[in-house]
Amino acid sequence: MEVFNLMKYKKILPLLIAGFMLAGCGKETDNHGLDKNNPVTITIWHYYNGIQQISFDNMVNEFNETVGAENGIIVEAYTKSTISDLNSAVINSLNGDVSADAPPDIFAAYPETAFIADKMGKAADLNEYFTDKEKSEYIDDYIQEGQFNADGEFTIFPIAKSTEIMGINYTDWQKFADSENVSLDDLKTWERVAKTAEKYYKYTDALTPDIKDDGKAFFGRDSIANYMLIGAEQLGSPFFSSENGKFEVNIDKDTLKKLWENYYVPYVKGYYTAQGRYRSDDAKIGNIIALVGSTTGISYFPSTVTIDDDYTYSIEAKVLPVPQFEGCKSVQVQQGAGMVVTKSDETHEYASAVFLKWFTQSDNNIEFSLNSAYLPVKKEANDISKINDVISSSEIEIAPILKDSIEISVEKINDPSVELYESPPFEQAEGARDFIGDFIQMCADEDYNEINDRVEAGEERAAVEAEYTSDKAFDEWFEQFKDGLEEIIS
């Protein structure tokens, strides 16, 4: 059926599909307690804000007016503002805290929170409501993320995902590239990005020969934890692994050295930076011209750069795949909370499954994904021609940079040679992840400032930088990192 017809009969089609969904979840005569004349209410807690919340609410309203009304299901969605607030609210609720609200029927969760809910015995096994054939329609890695325990229970249902993308201020890049004979190929690996960043620092420093050491940083990254975790996976020594329910921690010194050399070292030399809340903030004021961030955040990449609040100029933006480590397998992060159904009764659990199936029907999911800058979760929905058809057949307005980002991301997701990475869940996962990213960033910030203070006091920059980037300096950093991570895990 052509996309045009799908959009034309959008209000009718869900009612027809609902019948197939109901028949596919059990006996044909079993409605699992649903009664259109006595509807059941399903509550959802999420962390969406802004356009994402508006898009989600619109989808909920459409469900309630169509499939929900036909089958006696009313969905009520509530935002908890942030993922941290949501996690706290969910755990407090499941624990039965006196001041907590009653548990929702569905809540958005990353694996760490889902793992805790599962250990508490409060997460429903969605295998009871989704057949193997139905699950096979979704990206395999997304389903596998939700089946993390040794029993193979299906705990986290994927509804929308994001990955990472590299954004470039192409206007200023071209000036630099023409002058220094560099190309976009120099941004394919982390090793070459670091070398390119050094060239950019020296290039910008030379623009003001009367001012010493005023070169500009080239690059910044939003999630250092992703750099560390994905980098370790690429380099063959992931920090965490889980197989058949057995969890293992691996802190490999050679791997950490490679990660340190390609982030900490260029950072303390001024080639990388992180000053604003997000790296797009740094790009807006010319602090950097390249960044890696989430595909959901790439729409914030600036179209203008403002220098010193009094000079603004327009720029062209370009997106590229995230760099990889040289000679290593290609790994791409998959991120974005899924939905966990709270263990309750058959009617509420089944009604929750009906909503989740409807929400992830390809056209519905593509529409939500485009409106909220996420990626759809079904295999057939991760098709650029289908996505473009939905864009052209609807009123969705999408920025060119976001459209390009989606195309690159979908290409990576569909590439069998690319591994989609998610960190295995465990009780201390959130704290461990935060430490892995925060420790190297905090050390880099502190040491960068110390280097500048010593240079301003009269020491030679090259000598001071050599001290902070020596093997001895790494050994000291590694021992502190190792001790800190082991303490959190234990």
Helix content class: 40-55%
Largest sheet: 4 strands, mixed
The CATH superfamily of the largest domain is known as Periplasmic binding protein-like II
Shape summary: globular
Overview of this protein structure:
The chain is of the alpha/beta class and 490 residues long. The protein is 48% helix and 13% strand. It has a 4-stranded mixed beta sheet with strand order 2-1-3-13. Strands 5-8-4-11 form a 4-stranded mixed beta sheet. The model is unreliable at 1-24 (pLDDT under 50).
Structural key phrases:
2 domains; alpha/beta; four-stranded mixed beta sheet; 14 strands; D-Maltodextrin-Binding Protein, domain 2; disordered N terminus; 48% helix; globular; 490 residues
Set out the fold topology.
Layout: H1 3-8, H2 13-24, E1 40-46, H3 50-71, E2 73-79, H4 83-95, E3 106-109, H5 111-119, H6 132-135, H7 140-145, E4 164-169, H8 170-180, H9 190-206, E5 219-221, H10 224-234, E6 240-243, E7 246-249, H11 253-261, H12 264-268, H13 279-284, E8 290-294, E9 304-307, E10 311-314, E11 317-320, E12 330-333, E13 338-341, H14 346-359, H15 362-372, H16 384-393, H17 400-414, E14 418-421, H18 429-456, H19 461-468, H20 471-489
